[in-house]
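Example 9 (inverse folding). The structure is encoded as follows.
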């Protein structure tokens, strides 16, 4: 059985002290929640949020990491640094990394493999742009991102990978894919995972939806058979929005 998984990506919001105060508030309302819950603050707030989340059920995530363990990589953050701070999950291939910072499938794949080799879990983000959707290329794009992003990942390590389907046109825009539209892409993703690995591996995988998830659309999305959770951006920054999403009831 797949356990629903709600992740909050705080992006470049909140200083370390603001993040710690917010995490304390969320811990009070989400520790022991029935779904898996993860918070991904900015790098500079990881240590403070890690202290707040210690011994809780809430996972600490990072929003990115370098493709190398160490070395002359000015401005980058290594998997070893993340692990020491108590990070157990890293978001990789977010559309903002792909489209604003030029991250390629090859680079993202190197990061996925490094994270897994160090025992972290990875949330691999995939999704089409509006132009790609309008050109009827959704299947081709998500299948390519999946195949290249997971190249060289064993079936064993796959159990520590979560896929987040995030149509780029729905991120931060207030436009959400309808539950049916999202579910049909999630089905494409699950079928591709079955081709790449096995049906049982694909059936076990958590596939999150991301793109303007809010308290009023979460239940409809999560009611779909192939949608197992959400990667939440804007609505993860306010307690009154994130708590009801993270505690959604199955319809
Ligand atoms: C995201 O950044 O992953 C995201 C889904 O953002 P939002 O919820 O704001 O659309």
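The amino acid assigned to each position is listed next.
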């Amino acid at each position: 059985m797949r356990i629903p998984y709600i992740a909050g990506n705080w992006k470049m919001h909140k200083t370390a002290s603001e993040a710690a105060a917010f995490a304390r508030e969320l811990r009070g309302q989400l520790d022991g929640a029935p779904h898996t819950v993860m918070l991904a603050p900015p790098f500079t707030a990881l240590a403070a949020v890690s202290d707040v989340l210690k011994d809780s059920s809430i996972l600490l995530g990072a929003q990115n990491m370098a493709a190398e363990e160490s070395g002359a990589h000015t401005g980058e953050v290594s998997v070893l640094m993340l692990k020491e701070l108590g990070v157990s999950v890293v978001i990789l291939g977010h559309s903002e990394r792909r489209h604003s910072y030029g991250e390629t499938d090859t680079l993202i794949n190197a990061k996925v493999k490094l994270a897994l080799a160090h025992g972290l879990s990875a949330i691999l983000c995939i999704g089409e742009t509006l132009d790609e959707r309008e050109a009827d290329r959704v299947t081709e794009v998500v299948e390519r991102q999946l195949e290249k992003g997971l190249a060289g990942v064993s079936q064993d390590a796959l159990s520590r990978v979560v896929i987040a389907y995030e149509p780029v046109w729905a991120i931060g825009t207030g436009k959400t894919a309808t539950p049916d539209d999202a579910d049909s892409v999630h089905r494409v993703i699950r079928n591709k995972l079955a081709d790449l690995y096995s049906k049982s591996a694909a059936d076990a995988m958590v596939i999150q939806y991301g793109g303007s998830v809010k308290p009023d659309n979460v239940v409809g999305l999560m009611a779909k058979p192939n949608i197992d959770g959400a990667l939440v951006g804007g609505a993860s920054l306010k307690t009154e929005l994130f708590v009801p999403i993270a505690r959604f009831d199955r319809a």
